[in-house]
Amino acid sequence: MRSTPVSLVALAATCLLLTSCAASSAGGSSTADDTVELTTPTGVDITIPAEPTAALGFYTTDLDILITLGFDLAGTQPIRDDFMAFPDFFPQEELEGLETFGNFPEFNLEAVLEAEPDFILSGLGYEEDLDGQLQKIAPTYTYNAFDGGDWRDVVAKAATDLGREEQWQEWVDQYEARIADIRSRLDAADIHPVVADVGYWDGQVTTSCYGVPCLVFADLGLEMAPLMNATEDGLPASDEYAELSPEQLGQLEGIDVVFTGAEEDGTVWVEEDEALQQNAIWQNLSFVQDGEYYPYNYEMIYGSPSGMDAFLTVVEKALLG
Question: 180 near 173, Cβ under 8 Å?
Fold first, then answer.
């Protein structure tokens, strides 16, 4: 992930305070009764409205988390530069009527300012200097949602810090109930495949234990292919992807069911590469011959409640019909 530094001269001229520019423009003043003081995971002390009315999610997963936690949203929200709209597996009713602007991988802080948020949630805590820039626009809760761990851990802490434990627990309970139901049906049908998350990039087939797919596999108790290098908790044992050249694809033998990323427009990477379609080793793999590979919107892998639910649905349909 990358970003382009943005000058903040215009931002500083517009709003010199480290509180919400939107709140200032509305003419409201905060009191001890309608604000909350807290320290973010980045060590910044912020004061936020007890009930924000214009929350903004800096990345798409942040927006989904805001919705899950029951925040009222700013009327304009960021999307990825390569998207035309919000991911189709997000809750569409809550997104209805919202305007969008591209904000990743290039950051558009001017557009964030124009959205007039009174609170910002940002999971891009790995980005140096970004938090300080966002704090000049509105009080920002920054955390690192992409540290290689289980995204639920950092979001659970955020929910606690923000006083939204009840909303978070509601999602956890419904997700765990779905997991229990699907596991029981898999056991009853004696369905226990070896699964893998497989992609294709720059002439090589790749697999790894990164993000939501690995977590869902682990939650369901599915056996993951050794090449995924997964821990029992569904986390990557290392940061490295397994990258297979055309001559090494036989190492995928023994995998029963594959899940594979697709573009927002539905383009499936492993189906589009001409060389892969002409590779005899690939074509002879059992999951290819049996059609046991299932596309999913690649944005699901970046942890968020709707992404987790949506990928679980993909797995449920693939294994249980």
Answer: no
β-bridge partners, 144: 124
Q: How does DSSP assign 267-293, residue by residue?
A: -BHHHH-HHHHT-HHHHTSHHHHTT-E
- The crossing angle, in degrees rounded to 10, of helices 151-161 and 212-219 is 100
Going across the sheet that includes 119-122, the strands are: 55-57, 119-122, 140-142
Q: What does the chain come to in residues?
A: 321
Q: What superfamily would CATH give domain 9-163?
A: Nitrogenase molybdenum iron protein domain (3.40.50.1980)
170-320: CATH number: 3.40.50.1980
CA 310, 316, 319, 321 torsion-angle sign = negative
pLDDT at 125 over 50: yes
pLDDT tens-place string over residues 225-236: 999 988 888 888
What percent of the chain has pLDDT above 70? Answer: 90
Average pLDDT in the 34-52 region? 95
For residue 10, what pLDDT is reported? 41
Residues 306 and 179: their CA atoms lie apart, in Å, by 15
Q: How many CA atoms lie within 13 A of 13 on its CB side?
A: 5
Q: Report the pLDDT value the prediction gives residue 18, as an integer from 0 to 100.
A: 36
Which pLDDT value is given to residue 33? 67
**Residues 96, 73: Cα–Cα separation, whole Å:** 11
CA distances to 88, 171, 172 from 168, in Å: 22, 5, 6
Average pLDDT over residues 20-32: 38
Handedness of CA 296, 299, 305, 308 (dihedral sign): positive
Indicate if the pLDDT at residue 6 is higher than 60.
no
Task: Kindly calculate the radius of gyration of the chain based on its CA atoms and give it in whole angstroms.
Answer: 21
Contact 90, 57 (CB under 8 A): no
Q: Do domains 9-163 and 170-320 have the same CATH topology?
A: yes
Which sequence spans correspond to the domains of the chain?
Answer: 9-163, 170-320
